[in-house]
């Protein structure tokens, strides 16, 4: 199985440990992983700001970098959702469609494609799981609390395989953190208040770490935690599943 490793630009620049953990975890599970050196932004920030017509260069570069892989995996639900729904090529749309169907968020790839049933990981800490909106509502990584339906969580099922981890229960299991990409710039006051509420739920239940599938959401909450002088840390789920402990 040949996997193309898609690393979002903000992970590459600010949280390389999440990228390294993703690579190591996939290799441990038997994948041949290749990181295309020339990859850049997928174009999501422009599209979210109303400028999707300016993302043609991003689309063409993405297709050039990731054409030919069996699967494409990324530690970011929001970037994966953008590619799956918005990748186009005016010269070869069939190739764009093929690549869209091969792009997977990490935890979905682990549960649905590799069908992981156990992990040799240990993380002896109290951890709060943040369900990011793009992953939950766009990629269907977990159930939504407002629906009368059986509950499930792909990230949660993987975390449950980690030895000695204690997953805390939150009052609002799928509340938005307020990041929302460019929303946190356009509506900073609302975004900040939502983030403080999301962090407070984790703190109330004694979390030592907050984890999730989107480093962007975790980055937003990390800023709030640091401004509050909290010792609680954020960590991408890949680092926990890979057995990394800081």
Could you please describe the fold and organization of this structure?
This protein has two domains: 112 residues, Rossmann fold (3-Layer(aba) Sandwich); 116 residues, Rossmann fold. The model has no long low-confidence stretch (mean pLDDT 92). The strands form two sheets. It has a four-stranded parallel β-sheet, sandwiched between helices. With 246 residues, it is an alpha/beta fold. α11 crosses α12. The longest helix has 17 residues. 46% of the residues lie in helices and 12% in strands. It is built from 13 helices and eight strands. α12 links the parallel β7 and β8.
CATH level-1 class of the largest domain: Alpha Beta
Helix content: 40-55%
Number of strands: 8
Principal-axes shape call: globular
First CA to last CA: what distance?
31 Å
Summarize model confidence as the mean pLDDT.
92
Parts with pLDDT < 50 across at least 5 consecutive residues? none
Write the H/E string, N to C: EHHEHHEHHEHEHHEHHEHEH
- CATH architecture annotation name of the largest domain: 3-Layer(aba) Sandwich
> Which structural class do the helices and strands define?
alpha/beta
This entry's quaternary arrangement is single chain
Largest sheet: 4 strands, parallel
Strand content: 5-15%
Question: Any idea how many domains?
Answer: 2
* Strand line-up of the largest beta sheet: 2-1-3-4
The CATH topology of the largest domain is what? Answer: Rossmann fold
> Helical segment tally?
13
Radius of gyration: 18 Å
InterPro entries: Cys_rich_dom (IPR004017)
Protein name: L-lactate dehydrogenase complex protein LldE
Domain Cysteine-rich: 3-83, 127-221
GO cellular component, one term: cytosol
């Amino acid at each position: 199985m040949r996997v193309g490793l898609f690393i979002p630009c903000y992970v590459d620049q600010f949280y390389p440990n999440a990228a390294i953990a993703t690579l190591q975890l996939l290799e441990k599970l038997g994948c041949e992983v290749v990181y295309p050196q020339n990859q850049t932004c997928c174009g999501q920030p422009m599209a979210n700001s109303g400028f999707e017509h300016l993302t043609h260069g991003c689309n063409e570069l993405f297709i050039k970098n990731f054409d030919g892989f069996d699967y494409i995996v990324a530690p970011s639900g929001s970037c994966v959702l953008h590619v799956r729904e918005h990748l186009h090529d005016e010269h070869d749309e069939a190739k764009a469609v093929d690549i869209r169907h091969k792009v997977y968020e990490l935890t979905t790839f682990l549960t649905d494609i590799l069908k992981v049933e156990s992990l040799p990981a240990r993380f002896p800490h109290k951890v709060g799981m943040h369900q990011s909106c793009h992953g939950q509502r766009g990629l269907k990584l977990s159930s939504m609390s407002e629906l009368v339906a059986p509950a499930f969580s792909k990230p949660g099922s993987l975390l449950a395989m980690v030895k000695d981890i204690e997953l805390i229960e939150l009052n609002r299991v799928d509340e938005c953190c307020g990041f929302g990409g460019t929303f946190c710039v356009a509506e900073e006051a609302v975004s900040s208040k939502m983030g403080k509420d999301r962090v407070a739920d984790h703190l109330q239940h004694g979390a030592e770490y907050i984890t999730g599938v989107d480093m962007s959401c975790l980055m937003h909450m990390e800023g709030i935690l640091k401004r509050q002088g909290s010792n609680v840390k954020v960590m991408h789920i890949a680092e926990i599943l890979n057995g990394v402990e800081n």
